[in-house]
Specification:
Helix content is 48%, strand content 19%. The protein is of the alpha+beta class. Among the domains are: 164 residues, Sandwich (Jelly Rolls); 159 residues, Heat Shock Protein 90 (2-Layer Sandwich); 115 residues, 3-Layer(aba) Sandwich (Rossmann fold). The chain starts with a helix and ends with a helix.
Length: 785
């Protein structure tokens, strides 16, 4: 036997033992039973116990006697007892009618005030004690028109000076299927009875509040969550069943609203029962659809809804007769639910263990309620409270686990999506950068071949367009890198003035609109070099100027760099880009910093761009602890600015500039090119020839391993090739002791692959498409080393 099954059986046996121990059963003989219309309590200590006024009462059928009226002929009848189980003159009597009950109670000597606990009796009644009307429930009459039904529980005080009680109850029922006295009246110390009644009311309030709030919580979870039908039906079940707690049993609701119509409350009482069971059937159907017979549960839910419809349309005298067949249906259904949850438990469904425990708990609760309903046994209210608590707690755990499982799965799907996105971006990076490398490389070569002036202009347009396409690709890749938290900043000597001048001159040369005046406003006292990331600073300035140029038809675009504060160690600069473009409305000024977003959905169509430039610039600055600010007015223009502090370099290490037309810097150097793309091979061949290098070509990693010899001084290694890629080839070379510099030429995202590349022994990385001078600089650096 499995450990889970043992635990379940132990759980069931434990609950059953508790219920058995907590029941006060009528099978236990009692000495305090009325005989022949008299109950002798003179030897009973009422301080320690409450006594039920049960036994033989004088019974007058079809008579409504007054307290001092002469008694006509009577019979003795069991009290409490339904009229359907009572005889008058040896004949069965109907459930509708009226009658009178009388009982004499002999009391013991008592210092504390006594009281009577009077429950609801399915009937209207007047209760007299020693000739005085002390309690009434509705208005009993001799006909249906004269009878006003009402149900409530009451605790009434008794006069303390009497040693004998003459109790008379006038009772009538014409509206309910059951008539008679359904529950016993108790006598005891008034304070004890009131305390017990208040505790029962408080328990009902608390339980109703918890179930109702749980129902609304799960309803909100359904409406604003993942639209799981099981959550919806469980929330409706909670809402409907919460009325059962407060609107039946002890009828706690009537203690709050004593003037509620009996007609409405009895409809709600039965309607809530039928609807709650229907919702629970649908809940089980959707909770474990693989283990639950869908058609059977649909039929069960349909039967309950049919009962609910009858309740809405029929009078109480009719629909209250449905309770007996419905109780049978509920027992069958709960047993069926236990089987379903057991099957789900065996199949290891999410939360099925809690579902099984809750179904056992509700099954025991239903049995308790049925036993009490038929007067067989009466459980303590605490037992029912614990049972309800176990049931709803377990069911809440089921849905919590289910919701958590859904969230976990959604998280896993999202992580898988991010991984897929990264792989897609990496693939697209390689596929787009590889042909771009050929386009940009060949364009550089053609420009260096002294073309005619008209050809040079066309080549410059071609180079600008290719670089613009590369910028768009880089924007998408950069934003993915920033989102992944992999962005890195390289601190090096940076000339802010030079970056600003190059940015303005570059866009001025590329602009095809003569109505825009590009202005550069730089503080004359800027230091030559500061410590910063020149690439990211240039990227931010370029994005801001590009954005301003894109939205300005005429006027000016002005890039300003001014000193805000300066010390010997550092300088604080305000860098701003001002334009006279279309401007941005106030309500759109926050939105434009979001990814793929522009102030108007038509903007991207009218002005182009990915909508990532501002988002990237803002995030790059935020990572460095700097805010990107905006002031704008529609129709007059915008100003983007940020204030950033840079350390000042007194004696910067200035890297010599490589001339555009590089001399034979690689004369006498032999390089092994490992590349499978013919266009890229052609580009590399042309540049290496110009730089004076000789070379061999391997078209995959295996060829590179076979061809490498002592004459080679450096390897230019593509990372994505057939047969054997650059990663594996580099591992093999390093494993056999080769120390030759290996420079990776990759079209992948450098930040994504940098760690893995360096781990296998790659010396450096050059990202395609590369600028010829950048490649030459890296080659010279490692040859010198």
């Amino acid at each position: 036997m499995s450990r889970s099954l043992k635990f379940l059986l132990l759980y069931i046996v434990g609950v059953a033992l508790i219920l058995t121990d907590c029941y006060s059963q009528e099978k236990i003989p009692s000495q305090n039973i009325a005989k022949a219309g008299t109950l002798d309590l003179r030897n009973v200590n009422l301080n320690n116990q409450d006594v039920g006024l049960t036994g033989e009462w004088k019974f007058f059928w079809k008579m409504s006697l007054a307290p001092k009226q002469v008694e006509p002929k009577y019979e003795y009848s069991k009290f409490p007892g339904l009229w359907s189980d009572t005889e008058w003159k040896n004949e069965a009597i109907p459930s509708q009618g009226f009658a009178t009950y009388k009982l004499t109670v002999l009391l013991p000597e008592q210092d504390q005030q006594l009281g009577l606990g009077v429950p609801e009796m399915y009937c209207a009644y007047n209760l007299f004690v020693n000739g005085k009307l002390l309690a009434r429930n509705g208005k009993p009459g001799k006909t249906k028109l004269l009878t006003l039904p009402y149900w409530s529980n009451q605790v009434i005080p008794l006069a303390s000076e009497r040693d004998t009680l003459q109790i008379l109850i006038q009772i009538a029922n014409f509206q309910h299927e059951k008539g008679g006295a359904s529950k016993e009246i108790k006598i005891g110390i008034l304070n004890n009875l009131q305390a017990a009644s208040n505790l029962n009311y408080a328990t009902d309030y608390f339980l109703t509040g918890c179930i109702l709030m749980g129902g609304f919580f799960f309803l909100g979870l359904y409406l604003f969550g993942n639209q799981d039908r099981s959550i919806l039906y469980f929330s409706l079940f909670c809402i409907f069943y919460s009325y059962r707690i407060i609107g039946s049993g002890q009828y706690t609701l009537q203690s709050i609203f004593p003037h509620l119509s009996w007609e409405y409350t009895v409809h709600f009482e039965y309607l809530s029962l039928f609807l709650a069971v229907a919702m629970f059937a649908l809940y089980t159907r959707h909770l474990y659809p693989e283990d639950a017979p869908q058609k059977i549960l649909s039929v069960m839910a349909g039967i309950c809804l049919a009962f609910a419809l009858i309740t809405l349309l029929a009078p109480p005298i009719l629909f209250t007769r449905l309770i007996d067949p419905f109780i049978f249906i509920v027992v069958v259904y709960i047993a069926f639910a236990v089987v379903i949850y057991w099957r789900a438990f065996r199949n290891r469904r999410v939360g099925s263990g809690y579902a099984l425990m809750s179904s056992v708990a509700i099954f025991i609760i239903i049995i308790c309620v049925i036993l009490e309903y038929y007067g067989i046994a009466t459980p303590f209210d605490f037992v029912l409270f614990v049972g309800y608590a176990i049931f709803f707690f377990c069911q809440s755990l089921i849905l919590t686990f289910r919701f958590a499982y859904t969230l976990k799965k959604a998280k896993e799907d999202a992580e898988l999506g991010l991984k897929t996105k990264s792989e897609f971006l990496s693939t697209m990076s390689h596929e787009i950068r590889t042909p771009l490398n050929s386009v940009i490389g060949m364009t550089h070569l053609m420009i260096r071949d002294d073309p005619r002036p008209d050809q040079k202009g066309q080549l410059e347009v071609l180079l600008f367009s290719a670089n613009n396409l590369l910028t768009i690709v880089n924007d998408v890749l950069d934003f993915g890198t920033i989102e992944a938290g992999k962005i890195r900043f390289t601190l090096e000597p940076t000339d802010i003035s030079l970056i600003a001048r190059n940015t303005i001159s570059g866009y001025q040369a590329a602009a095809n609109n003569s109505d825009i005046n590009f202005i550069l406003d730089i503080d004359e006292h800027l230091p030559t070099h500061v410590l910063g990331d020149k690439t990211r600073t240039a990227q931010i300035m370029g994005n801001l100027v590009h954005n301003a140029t894109k939205f300005t038809n005429k006027g000016h675009v002005k890039l300003s760099v001014h000193t805000v504060k300066k010390t010997q160690e550092e300088i604080t600069l305000k860098i701003s880009v001002e334009d006279t473009g279309i401007g941005i409305p106030l309500d759109k000024q926050k939105v434009i910093f979001e990814r793929f977003t522009q102030a108007d959905s038509s903007t991207s169509r009218g002005f182009g761009g990915t909508g990532l430039g501002l988002a990237i610039s803002k995030k790059l600055l935020e990572i460095q602890g700097v805010d990107l600010n905006l002031t704008s007015e529609p129709g007059k223009g915008s100003t983007f600015y940020f204030v950033q502090t840079f350390p000042i370099l007194v004696e910067p290490e200035i890297t010599p500039k490589i001339e555009n037309k590089s001399p034979q810097k690689l004369s006498g150097i032999r390089i092994l090119i490992v590349e499978d793309n013919e266009m890229n091979i052609l580009v590399l061949q042309n540049f290496l020839k110009r730089w004076g290098a000789s070379f061999d070509i391997a078209r995959n990693g295996q060829e590179a391993i076979d061809m490498l010899n002592e004459s080679h001084q450096l390897i230019l290694m593509d990372m994505h090739m057939p047969v054997m890629d650059g990663y594996e080839a580099s591992k093999v070379l390093r494993s056999r002791g080769e120390t030759i510099p290996i420079i990776a030429l990759t079209a992948g995202v450098a930040v994504d692959i940098e760690d893995s590349i360096y781990e296998i022994g790659i010396t450096d990385i050059v990202v395609k498409p590369f600028i010829p001078e950048s490649l030459l600089k890296v080659v010279l650096q490692h040859l010198k080393a």
